[in-house]
Design a protein that fits this description.
By secondary structure, this protein is α+β, with helices and mostly antiparallel strands. It is 40% helix and 16% strand. It is built from eight helices and five strands, in the order H-H-H-H-H-H-E-E-H-E-H-E-E. Strand 3, helix 8 (179-195) and strand 4 form a beta-alpha-beta unit. The longest helix has 19 residues, at 75-93.
Length: 219
């Protein structure tokens, strides 16, 4: 593969995009436009090709440290890539998603199944169970101080949501709620009743399956 400076100007990724449109670019060329430049000893095209090969292995559990394992990718570049992936999920992949069961929640949040830290998430839904938005509320061991009702329901109120589903992953792989999980669920269910936004379910996520408070009769 030629280095960037060896390419005819019209074949350089940014110029190619401007003249022919984004659909004319190869995967690594799109990545090159996103990154802008490479590093000493590795130009942007070579760096982009390495990153695309990593993305092809899967993006579900992609994190800053995994991207940063590639020489030439620091936290800033890794953050750019993760932001671009999240935007594509929000505006393209998840368009018109419907969440009616714990399995739907598990599929929608598949990128969190194998995370090494606990992620506590909230999904806001309209009256027809269409997904309005999904958000990370906190990262770390689940407890009542990290998951305050105002943090969970503030965006649901702004979204004019009819209902909300909460979820968190268990890095241990154990698909069963703890006493703390139950306390947090009860507290949020009570807050939802006061606010008029129903807590529809709390789903515990692992790579191999899920636990649903609703399906188990705990909500």
């Amino acid at each position: 593969m030629k280095k960037l400076k060896e390419l005819y100007e019209g074949d350089r990724p940014r110029e190619k995009l401007l003249s022919r449109g984004a659909e004319a670019l190869k995967d690594h060329e799109l990545m090159a436009v996103l990154l802008g430049r490479g590093v000493r000893g590795k130009d942007v095209l070579r760096l982009s090709k390495e990153l695309v090969e990593l993305l092809r292995e899967g993006v579900d559990d992609l994190e800053i440290d995994k991207l940063s394992s590639i020489h030439g990718v620091g936290e800033a570049k890794a953050a750019q890539i993760l932001a671009a992936l999240e935007l594509s999920r929000r505006f393209l992949i998840r368009e018109k998603a419907v969440v009616r069961s714990a399995e739907d929640v598990w599929k929608e949040l598949k990128e969190y199944h194998g995370r090494k830290q606990e992620y506590f998430l909230a999904l806001t839904l309209d009256g027809a169970s269409h997904l309005i938005e999904k958000r990370v509320i906190s990262v770390g061991t689940l407890n009542q101080s990290l998951v305050h009702p105002r943090e969970v329901f503030a965006d649901a109120i702004a979204d004019r949501a009819a209902g909300i589903v909460i979820a968190h992953n268990h890095p241990s792989g154990q698909c069963f709620p703890s006493a703390q999980d139950r306390r947090v669920t009860q507290r949020l269910a009570e807050a939802g009743r006061l606010l008029g936004i129903e807590l529809l379910d709390h789903v515990i996520l692992t790579r191999d399956g899920w636990y649903s408070f609703s399906e188990e009769g705990e909500l």
